[in-house]
Amino acid sequence: MQEVRREISEPPLVTSYQALLQNNDLHSSSLKNENLSVQEIDLPLIDLCNLQSENRENSRLCAKEIVGAASDWGFFQVLNHGISLELLEKIKREQVKLFRLPFEKKVSSGVLNDSYRWGNPTATSASQFSWSEAFHVPLEKISDEDCNYGEFSSLREIMKKLAMAMSSLAQTIADILAQNLGYTCHDFPQNCDERTCFLRLNRYPPCPFSWPETGGGASGLISHTDSDYLTILHQDQVGGLQVMKDSRWVSVRPNRNALIVNIGDLFQAWSNDVYKSVEHRVIANAKRERFSFAYFLCPSYQSTVGAYAQPSRYRSFTFGEFREQVQDDVKRIGRKVGLPRFLMDHAEQHIHKQIDF
């Protein structure tokens, strides 16, 4: 009986992926080798308890570690981050139950205000398809009395606590990165609050189009950079997250006690490339499902993202302009271009280097 319910709960990923493969060879070298990783690594690991140390040197060194990782890797892990393991376990349990809903109910019931997403509706090839499902929830909707939690009433308070804790952590890290560039915590980031930030609950189902022996097959989440200031991620122990480092993919070894932080496009632009927004992806697992959830620190769509210092490599743009450009590129050429579109000395030949038309 449990297997029947599990099957019904699955989105039609198989059907959609097979349709995209109709004009492609399923075992082509591109699909077999696209996801091949070089090695498994540990991201830089930073103990945030040192930020509160009475020893100012310990606090200074901790901040220096954060700045160094944001500049070199664009990704790092944090321990003693102030979010209890009990809260993380609670949201994971609720998350699992939520995704076990029948697919049609997830799509049509309006749970969490129609925030359910699956696959990639704009994909025109298998390489653009994400083998995953998610609930993409703006923070202001979490505490909204009109937000539909359906049969998951216990999820409301847990998500409210998680959103508050993640927001506090994101602000702490953003303050450190801004202060390193000479800004005070009151100057940056601006217009980032529950009206603009959001949580995303992710599930990556087992994928029959995954070949561990070659590292190929479907992507759980296709290669991308994040269109925000910074992201905080909690993942389970299944693994699958990969990060681009020195022009090569590396697999991130899961750490049960750590949260992952990564720099987004807006922070790279604002910092004038001091901090790096790097490509990352999730590799689909052939046998095991994977769960994660992420917090995204975003400004309002009207907020201008200008570099903190001049001369700037990027022209000023609003978050709304950036999102519109990303959506237009995905629609026209099948993938995100991102920051190269906003370079001050932007030229078409640069874009052609980034994108294979």
From TrEMBL:
SUPFAM superfamilies assigned: Clavaminate synthase-like
Cofactor(s) essential for the protein: L-ascorbate
All residue ranges annotated as the Fe2OG dioxygenase domain in the record: 195-299
InterPro entries named in the record: DIOX_N (IPR026992), IPNS-like_FE2OG_OXY (IPR044861), IPNS-like_sf (IPR027443), Iron_ascorbate_oxido_reductase (IPR050231), Oxoglu/Fe-dep_dioxygenase_dom (IPR005123)
Domain of life, source organism: Eukaryota
Record keywords: Dioxygenase, Iron, Metal-binding, Oxidoreductase
One GO MF term attached to the UniProt entry: dioxygenase activity
Leader peptide range in chain numbering: none
Presence of the UniProt keyword Metal-binding in the record: yes
Keyword hit for Aminoacyl-tRNA synthetase: no
Gene3D superfamilies per record: B-lactam Antibiotic, Isopenicillin N Synthase, Chain
Protein family (similarity comment): Belongs to the iron/ascorbate-dependent oxidoreductase family.
The protein's name in its UniProt record: Gibberellin 2-beta-dioxygenase 8-like protein
Organism, scientific name: Carex littledalei
